[in-house]
Specification:
This protein has 337 residues and is α/β, with parallel strands linked by helices. It has helices at 10-17, 33-43, 51-57, 69-80, 96-110, 127-137, 167-170, 174-177, 179-190, 288-302, 310-329; strands at 2-6, 24-29, 46-48, 62-65, 85-89, 117-120, 144-152, 193-201, 212-219, 224-230, 237-244, 247-252, 262-267, 276-281, 333-334. A nine-stranded mixed sheet has the order 14-13-12-11-7-10-9-8-15. Strands 3-2-1-4-5-6 form a six-stranded parallel sheet, with helices on both faces.
Length: 337
């Protein structure tokens, strides 16, 4: 397949490295043309500094969009209207309204054709998380009762000047940064969210957006979930725990600065006491990007809805909007859609 990448920063490069040998990266684009030219030199493709020029001049089967939140909606819609398959990095627009506009265009196009839109939820494809999901689905831990997830880091010097700290460019703070992954995983493991009660704070960084988000989320399946995402964790952390009637699964670490990815499966004993525990450790290489890419290509070939699709991106933004509303109104918010 011929691939175009719009956005030549860190995530754009991760996506480029994840491509198959049988795929051809034909073009890249970034408004910083020097960045695009360096990217093109590294990956042997044609550089552009305007995505419309790329779409007019290059034939692509799939376009990967890895840009600042503010500009994602316009570019995604432009690419979809060219009937190209799209991977759009999370979040799918900087708010729920933008997600809804994207999905409206997608559905109009798919009324006469078949275009795939994927939200960049690569965390589903970390091997420990993926295996944990399989254990839950197989009934290993029994009926799921509750779930807890923590995700955070400590920021960087000058973080308040980064685009992530800009309400205009990002739409929000930590909830739209790491929070989208946490909420997507809650939906994936525990089902659709029914109601939320949230506390959204700016505790430390001199920002116009939140640096911490806390939430209690109840799903339609009766699973109670707790989430905390933070830019004041100081030490990078990822921890996902799912508790069932017969045991639990826990994933800690994502590799790299988040520590080794480790899956723990605990099986409860009838008589109580310490459960039977199995530990699975994973290599440090981050294979989530490649695994996600392969799943997306298979979905296109098999003409089925991909895992972590545009509708998932919409639903996550719906939950985040409810969390912001819960903070402003200081009450539980019910999701009706």
């Amino acid at each position: 397949m011929n691939i175009g990448i719009i956005g030549c920063g860190l995530i754009g490069k991760k996506r480029a490295y994840a491509l198959d040998k049988e795929d051809t990266l034909v073009a890249c684009c970034d408004t910083n043309f020097l960045l695009a030219k360096d990217f093109a030199l590294e990956f042997s493709c044609k550089p552009f500094n305007n995505h419309q020029d790329l779409l007019k001049n290059i034939d692509c089967d799939i376009v990967i969009i890895a840009v600042v939140n503010k500009y994602l909606k316009e570019i995604v819609i432009d690419v979809l209207q060219q009937h190209k398959h799209v991977i759009a990095e999370k979040p799918l627009g900087k708010n729920l309204k933008e997600s809804e506009e994207i999905i409206e265009i997608l559905e109009k196009i798919n009324s006469t054709g078949r275009v795939q839109l994927k939200t960049g939820f690569n965390h589903r494809f970390h091997p420990g998380i993926f295996a944990a999901k399989q254990f839950v689905e197989s009934g290993t831990i029994g009926k799921v009762m509750n779930m807890r997830i923590r995700y955070g880091h400590g920021g960087r010097s000058g973080m308040e000047k980064e685009w992530r700290a800009s309400k205009d460019l990002c739409g929000g703070g930590e909830l739209l940064d790491q929070g989208v992954h946490a909420i997507d995983l809650i939906r994936w493991f525990a089902g659709e969210v029914n109601d939320v009660y949230a506390q959204v704070e700016t505790k430390y960084w001199p920002l116009e957006v939140e640096d911490n988000g806390f939430g209690i989320l109840n799903t339609r399946n009766g699973v109670s979930c707790v989430v905390h995402v933070s830019w004041t964790n100081w030490k990078n952390i990822f921890s996902l725990e799912v508790f069932g009637e017969m045991g639990y699964v826990k994933v800690e670490g994502l590799g790299g600065s988040y520590g080794q990815e480790v899956l723990e499966i605990g099986k409860r004993k009838e008589e109580g006491g310490r459960p039977n525990i199995e530990i699975i450790e994973y290599p440090p290489e981050d294979v989530s990007w490649r695994n996600e890419w392969l799943e997306f290509k298979n979905a296109i070939k098999e003409q089925r809805l991909c895992v972590g699709n545009g509708y998932d991106g919409l639903k996550v933004n719906e939950v985040i909007e409810a969390m912001y509303l819960s903070q402003s109104q200081q009450k539980k918010i019910f999701l009706t859609k």
